[in-house]
Amino acid sequence: MSSLHPPSALAALAAVAAEAPRAALPATAHARRWGRLGAQLASVAACLLMWHLAVQLRLNLGLITFANVPSPAEVLEAAWALLHSPKLAGHLVSSLLRVGLGFGIAAVLGVVLGLAVGRWRWARNFLLPPLEVLRPIPAVAWIPLSILMFPSSEGSMVFITFVGALFPILLNTIHGVESVDARLVASARSLGTRGWRLFSEVIAPSAAPSIVTGLSIGMGTCWFCLVTAEMIAGQFGIGYYTWESYTVQNYAGIVVGMLLIGALGMGSSAIIRRAGERLMPWHRPQGAAQ
């Protein structure tokens, strides 16, 4: 009996059938990615539409009114003017330098203290009580004292950003160290891992996801505190621009400053999360959205 298909043809068909699911996977992931992007853009468009309608209708809800709120078109015009302003570079550089310095110092100190407090009882007993006393104090309350402590306003503003970022980083690092599986540590010790190797190869990698979360949160609070400090002591910066816009009744400029702060904060936090994902290839969040 003769075969309807030569063996070579059957093998080729089988190979194509085997590769078809693999080829479908990237296409499915691509479609899912575009679907997420479409949903995100739609949510932003819906917010802009509601904002536009509330301003146009001069919506008054009793506790809140949109009668004096600038429209999206006015904000876009103010943003365009700021984009072409020679002061924009000075505002951005000043804010980025203050955030970078304050966050950098807070990241190093917060991670080091968090690892020590989370791992050693003596560090917890000696260091944690004063830190817990200082933690509830809002960064705004530090502004008068920082002005007295630092001879320059720049130093006081960097200190305020440092205070705002320190405690989220510290607490998340402590939580990460305390969450390390004791069986993992015991297994490493049974294999002869001791001292610094145990710390660097077992404890720190296990606590890394919590540390990255703390860094991301700390970056957001850093921007929050910076704006408050710049409103009081700054001459350049996004916070200063926002406050200056209010004093000269440039209400659209206020919204531009707010949106710029939000964009910078979101972008810097996203960079930290992406860097964390690259540095932690072994970690995949449970229940992560697909």
From TrEMBL:
Enumerate the InterPro entries for this protein.
MetI-like, MetI-like_sf
Q: What does the UniProt entry say about where the protein is found?
A: Cell membrane
- Membrane topology classification: Multi-pass membrane protein
Which residues are in the ABC transmembrane type-1 domain? 92-272
Which keywords has UniProt assigned to this entry?
Cell membrane, Membrane, Transmembrane, Transmembrane helix, Transport
Q: Which residues cross the membrane?
A: 95-120, 132-150, 156-177, 198-231, 251-272
Instruction: Identify the Pfam families for this entry.
Output: BPD_transp_1
The similarity annotation says: Belongs to the binding-protein-dependent transport system permease family.
Name the UniProt record assigns to this protein: ABC transporter permease
Q: Name the species this protein comes from.
A: Azohydromonas lata
